[in-house]
């Protein structure tokens, strides 16, 4: 099966390519390298003994996409490409809507021209906003987003829902990721944020490796077990496997398919600091700071639907997530 992977050089896309190659699927990567390094391709090859096709280009470039669909016999598309920094999206909303929303529209238009109607979209738990209750199920309300990044994901979801309503031959799968963390256990691939990390795990890893002095913990007065925010951290390889399960179980079934990809377990910021400290043998300096605007107290997934309909369940523990992140970070202190 040939699967076009937009954003396949990025963090989640690259791990998904490795898992796909190992499962006998053929990824064809397109990426404009705005947030990735070409070295990723060498690492994929090193791990799998196979070098996937990589075409440098932008998902908003219709002529480029047309040429890709003309050249390769694509069965399905996984659409990872997009911008993902919440804070930056507040400062640059037009760039976020252009890349995330317009990029998805150009992609689906080119897919339709090429007669490719199977799409898996990288959505996010952020579409649920501040949940009324946890665990969050796929039926819970969406749309009360708190920043342009989240709104762009919600808007793409709505566009794709309307598309499949109008053209029922499409198979559209919306995967709502919770908090992807971790790295390939080889230590060869991992998350390589440019500049100061926005997310908790890469920040902790950079403190442990000595690139940053201390972690700022955003809020210790939430209604949670220790006052810090609680999230559903999921190992990036489990997430990658969730995409393969989605392709295999529903990728050929016309209709709309929506799944949470999480573990169903919540961990606090302090849980993650302690787990990382154990994994790395380093103490993680931190200070308690005010809440970060737009953050919610707690969020974790109901995983029943994915388990029932995809036969998929996250397998890797927080201990593995932190150990694998540490192996990646300590082997590659400056990233790729
Ligand atoms: P990433 O930035 O590592 O990967 C995205 C890739 O897309 C990068 O390689 C980048 O160069 C490429 N890209 C961006 N815009 C492009 C464009 N217009 N044309 C072609 N390539 C383009 O991010 P990631 O963490 O791997 O996330 C992948 C997807 O999952 C994103 O859509 C993101 O919003 C979504 N997601 C991520 C998280 C997370 O915490 N990492 C959580 C929920 C959802
Ligand atoms: N967080 C923190 N310090 C940081 C980054 C994040 O305390 O430098 C907290 C944040 O407030 C939240 C959790 O860690 O409770 C996860 O944040 P992240 O940005 O990784 O993911 P989010 O759930 O916000 O998408």
From TrEMBL:
It catalyses: UDP-alpha-D-glucose = UDP-alpha-D-galactose. Its cofactor is NAD(+). Residues 4-324 form the NAD(P)-binding domain. GO terms for molecular function: UDP-glucose 4-epimerase activity. InterPro entries: NAD(P)-bd_dom, NAD(P)-bd_dom_sf, UDP_G4E. Pathway: Carbohydrate metabolism; galactose metabolism. Keywords: Carbohydrate metabolism, Isomerase, NAD. The keyword NAD applies. Coiled coil: none annotated. It holds the Pfam family GDP_Man_Dehyd. Its EC number is 5.1.3.2. It comes from the Bacteria. CDD domains: UDP_G4E_1_SDR_e. It is an enzyme of class 5 (isomerase). Homodimer. Belongs to the NAD(P)-dependent epimerase/dehydratase family. This is UDP-glucose 4-epimerase. The lineage of its organism: Bacteria, Pseudomonadati, Pseudomonadota, Gammaproteobacteria, Vibrionales.
